[in-house]
Amino acid sequence: MPSVVATTSKAAVTLDAASATMTITTPDQTSETYQIDKFPDAGSTLVSAAKQEILTDLDLHEMIANLSRVSELLYLAYCGVAGTHVQATISDRRKVFLDLCADCVTAMTSFETAGRRIGNDVAEAFHWLVKGQEKRAMDRLTRSGKEAAAMAQTAQGLADRSAALGTDVQKDQHDTLELTALEQDALAKIRAERAQMAAEQSKQTSMNEQLAGSIATLNALYEDAKSREEKEEERAFITGIVSSVTSGLGSAFGAYTAAKNPLGTVAANLSRQPNREDPGQSSSGQETTEQTSGETSASTGQASGGGLDTGAANDTAADKGTGAKKSDGSTAAGVAAGLDDAGKTTRQMSEDAAKAGESVRQEKMRLLDQKLAQEASKREIVSHLAELSSKLASSDTEQKIHESAQVALQIAVWAFANITTTLVVTRQFWENVKKACDRLADSDINTKISDELASGDDPKARIEYYLSDMFMPSAIAYLARWAALTDLGREYKEGSIKARDASIANINLSPSISEARALLEPLKAKVQLELANDKLASTARSDKVKAELALLGSTI
Known about the structure:
Elements: E1 3-7, E2 12-16, E3 21-25, E4 31-35, H1 45-55, H2 60-80, H3 86-129, H4 134-260, H5 262-272, H6 279-304, H7 308-441, H8 445-455, H9 459-466, H10 472-508, H11 513-555
Antiparallel strand pairs: 1-2, 2-3, 3-4
Helix pairs in contact: 1-10, 1-11, 2-3, 2-7, 2-10, 2-11, 3-4, 3-10, 4-5, 4-7, 4-8, 5-7, 7-10, 7-11
């Protein structure tokens, strides 16, 4: 007849010695029956609880998802540190993780196979146990304990390797943080240089504008000076021609007049000469001349006698002719002198114009020198502006590269942090598996059987003990733990295969630096979304996990 051996607010456990079974009824009134000599189903509530006991506070689904995600995170980090010395290191880390995944697949395949086989052996051992054949049962249980100990060593090895990889990734994160700091310093320097170049460019632009205005003013002054110079040259040229013509005409006319009327010319010239004698002497001389002339005339008249009238008439006619010639000579000489003076005047005007032209020309040359100097300065400024523009463009490109590198490194740091966390969890998982294997290897089941054999009780009494609440729940829980380890092996193996295949696919990709940078944001967004979804799913599973752990606690 069945008997209830334990009742809690969460589950009720009923044992039936006749059928060697145990029934568990959950708060939602769902019942599951377990046999002492049968390997429990992997999907049963008790096996789920045993799996969670191995995992403790770990979420299997999240852990497997994170394991597969490490490959993407390493690829993300690899793209983030592209072009730096850390890239080669991350390439090595990816290979190490690939090897770790491959070994996890191997280990978990072995765990799954061995767990199922050992679980069946343990179920067979309990079959012989409830029939009173303890030695046969103990042989099976001892063998399973040794295999569990070997599995514990394998799990510890994988835990140590996960921890070592996590430590290495942590170092890579530190190196990347240093690179990020260097990029920040480089960006600060670039920004300062750009600000200085922009200020210099503004200054040079202002100078260029001012110089352009100055050059325009100089151009106007230069053109004005050039125009004045041309006018003065033209004036000098014309007055030079006039001077030459008038001087030539004066000389020619004077020569002609002298040839035609020498006396008139001489008289005209004498009339133009200044009187250099004393006025008294001139008057006395004049009187002497007049007296002499009178005396001569008187003598002549007396000597001539009767021809006085005829001679007088002839003298009168001669005086008229001489006077006329003298008058013509004076006029011609005056014209010649006037032309000569005009020639001198125009020559002086030509010389003055030439001097003014020279002065303007010198002014023009000074303006030209200033203009050339300013144009040279303008060319230098324009060249400097072009150089600054080129440097600013190059600096802008360099700044974008450094900003892109900084963002990439920051994403890599984020990826490293998640990788480290995942590997810590992976190490914890394998340490938990080791503890579970140690527990299976050192189970108190053998101790209880040995104690019963040593008690001297008859087989029937010992069988009753094995079917009681003092032994059967522990035995069924022992089977459930082997079933849990087997199923964990299966699930974790599948996750390891996905992680391994993803690692191989990512390692085969060889993006350039620019391609790697372009992949960063989409990859990070994808991983962030997956992490957020896993967190929500993990929160939803937490209540179920607590219930399963409570169920296992109430059973054992």
